[in-house]
Write a structure and sequence with these properties.
With 222 residues, the protein is an alpha/beta fold. It is 51% helix and 10% strand.
Length: 222
């Protein structure tokens, strides 16, 4: 049986979006087998401490397949992500990713294959935590930049990306090309390139427009 785990950490992300991507990639997942955690940090909250994570651990059985958009949906803390993938493999659960169609299972008995698999898991877990830290720094720098220079500096050109799209771009910068990212998030390649060149500026632009949108409109005089 196939399950999808969708962790969404901001209000702009959706589990439905992750499910659509999985189905387009060829995974056959029933709506009832979508387990989600909303508004949950993958850094500070361990998988087994999340409501959806606990439900999933109760449901999964040997031979089941757990699908995630990318391993960072399981977590962005190195130790926790490594631990949960290894625990799932010990249970006989296969973990597969939508992005790059990667597969992790405990079926192999060859020690060299195990070593390569475990090294890859460790690398991806480290990359997930590093990306989370880099994203946080970019957000902080973007906010500080917008505050220091005034949001009007960026209002000449509205960002072509949403909050969710920017988050996806930042997640994928270390592993994917601009063309691949553009196709996955539905943006022009040049937009992705601009984010890659200056993540802080991209964040600042989005912060400025979000701030403008949140301001109350002045009533026109009668």
């Amino acid at each position: 049986m196939q399950f999808l785990y969708a962790r969404v950490s901001t209000s702009d992300q959706t589990a439905a979006h992750q499910l659509d991507h999985a189905r387009v990639a060829g995974f056959e997942i029933d709506d009832d087998n979508v387990i989600k955690d909303e508004g949950v940090s993958g850094v500070s909250t361990r998988f087994a401490e999340r409501e959806g994570g606990r439900r999933l651990l109760d449901k999964l059985r040997a031979g089941d397949t757990l699908v995630v958009r990318w391993v960072d949906r399981l977590g962005r803390n190195y130790e926790d992500l490594v631990d949960i993938i290894r625990e799932l493999m010990r249970r006989g659960v296969i973990v597969r990713t939508v992005i790059n169609n990667m597969t992790f299972d405990g079926a192999t008995k060859d020690p060299m294959q195990k070593a390569v698999r475990d090294a890859l898991i460790g690398f991806m877990a480290a990359l997930g935590q590093a990306q989370a830290e880099a994203t946080k720094l970019a957000q902080q720098a973007g906010i500080a930049h917008a505050q220091a220079n005034g949001s009007r500096v960026y209002l000449g050109r509205k960002p072509s990306y949403s909050r969710e799209q920017l988050g996806c771009i930042l997640d994928l910068l270390a592993t994917e090309s601009d063309i691949t990212i553009a196709k996955q998030v539905g943006l022009d390649r040049l937009a992705v390139r601009r984010v890659r060149q200056d993540p802080a500026k991209a964040e600042a632009a989005l912060v400025a427009w979000e701030s403008l949108k949140a301001r109350p409109r002045r009533r026109q005089a009668a």
